[in-house]
Amino acid sequence: MDPQEGPVRETLATNVKRARGRKGVSLSELARLSGISKATLSQVEAGSGNPTIETVFSLSRALELPISDLLERGQPEGLTVVRGAEAEVLSGAGVDLRPLQTVEAGGMIFEIYDQRVRADSRQDSLGHAGREHTVVQEGRLGVTVDGHEVELGAGDYVAFDAALPHAYTALDGPVRSVLFLHYEAARRSRPAVPHR
């Protein structure tokens, strides 16, 4: 599936419009807060833009919302299976993210992603809401957080405040990892749907 087609683009459009309306933020103000041009934001809200990881993270930071509030279509109930080959991809400069699940428990929201850092690539982030956790499955991953650098191999784990500037770099070939983000549930833009 093309990462820019279909439900991700449509869901992002709906959720950005909703969040902006709830916060009473104009399109011009959101452009200023996010560093994204007003024209690009108009395209995103119309569902005709090509959202990247950078766009979603910037909107998350500007709207002070968990990323799942921008990408989630609804709360699943019962058994949930996400096939890797069928998961929609959100691509950035060096990373492909596949949103797998959002879990709410104990006043916290946990987002789970399949994260792939492309060979010889680097993905930079100015920061966004939440705390970030990464477990490397395959490859060697360079992680830079607020100027501090670490190198991770298969089975290694790192966690940090996602509001800090950070970057992931594939050091010698592609890297597969699992990315977890967590937030306080109070940061959600809408109430959770109770399980039946």
UniProtKB/TrEMBL annotation:
Q: Know the name of this protein?
A: XRE family transcriptional regulator
Q: Which SUPFAM superfamilies match?
A: lambda repressor-like DNA-binding domains, RmlC-like cupins
Q: Which Pfam families match?
A: Cupin_2 (PF07883), HTH_3 (PF01381)
Gene3D superfamilies the UniProt entry points to = Jelly Rolls, lambda repressor-like DNA-binding domains
The protein's UniProt keywords, in alphabetical order, are: DNA-binding
The HTH cro/C1-type domain sits at 16-70
InterPro entries listed in its UniProt record = Cro/C1-type_HTH, Cupin_2, Lambda_DNA-bd_dom_sf, RmlC-like_jellyroll, RmlC_Cupin_sf, TransReg_Diox_bact_type
Q: Which domain of life is it from?
A: Bacteria
